[in-house]
Amino acid sequence: MQPQTLGQLLETSAPERRFSSGISKLDAALPGKNGFRTGIYDISGTVGYVGLGAYEILFNVVLGVLASKGRVLCVQTTNKFPWLKLQKNRRFRPEYGDQIDCIDVSNLVDVIVLFKSKRFFDPYSMIILDSFPGMYAESIRNMKALIGPSANGDYSEPVIKFYQSARKLFPLMQQVCTNSQ
Distances in Å between the alpha carbon of 136 and those of 22, 44, 131, 139? Predict the structure, then answer.
């Protein structure tokens, strides 16, 4: 058997699934110039800005996933996803409700535990992780404030271990994205 070059491997891989935002100019501006690809999406920038159309764009992508028989997972933090607004979209079908799952997480530790069980994500074509950057930054800030630096300015071992654990979350998330169908 002759080994393949990386270029050959990439050329023969299955085409990437993409979903339209419903706005052709936005789809063309995204990497690949053809809409969103499957994976994990953070909607933290949209919370509180519903009037700007951010949820409408997200809903169009979600509806594209659902129409192609894909499953969507929404990992919610303190903000709740406005499902009623999605259900009022003219493209929404009652059977789509069975293709959407929601999980509430209260802190970064919950997110770390969730992503450590990587196989859990296998059935999902799209994962919406709500307010992750804010949760991450707040958790690090809280841990540092709770324990504080030592006399020489270094942070104690619990802060360092928590920070290391939180940093390991990013490769876990990347692995989930890479394995996403």
Answer: 30, 12, 9, 5
Flag whether the pTM goes above 0.90. no
Dihedral-angle region of residue 131 (phi above 0 means left; psi in -120 to 50 means alpha; beta otherwise):
left
The pLDDT of 19-40, averaged and rounded, is 74
Distance CA(96)–CA(44), nearest Å, equals: 24
Phi-psi region of 22 (alpha: psi -120 to 50; beta: other; left: phi over 0): left
Q: How far is CA 121 from CA 126, 145, 179, in A?
A: 9, 33, 9
Backbone angles phi, psi at 68, to 5 degrees: -90, 15
102 pairs with which residues across the strands?
74
Tens digit of each residue's pLDDT (9 = 90 or more) over 113-130: 888 887 788 888 888 887
Composition of the chain by helix, strand, coil, percent to 5:
55, 15, 35
> What are the pLDDT digits (tens) for 2-14?
444 444 444 444 5
> Sign (positive/negative) of CA torsion 39, 130, 77, 89?
negative
The DSSP code for 76 is: E
Q: Tell me: pLDDT of 30 over 60.
A: yes
Q: Report d(CA 144, CA 4) in Å as an integer.
A: 48
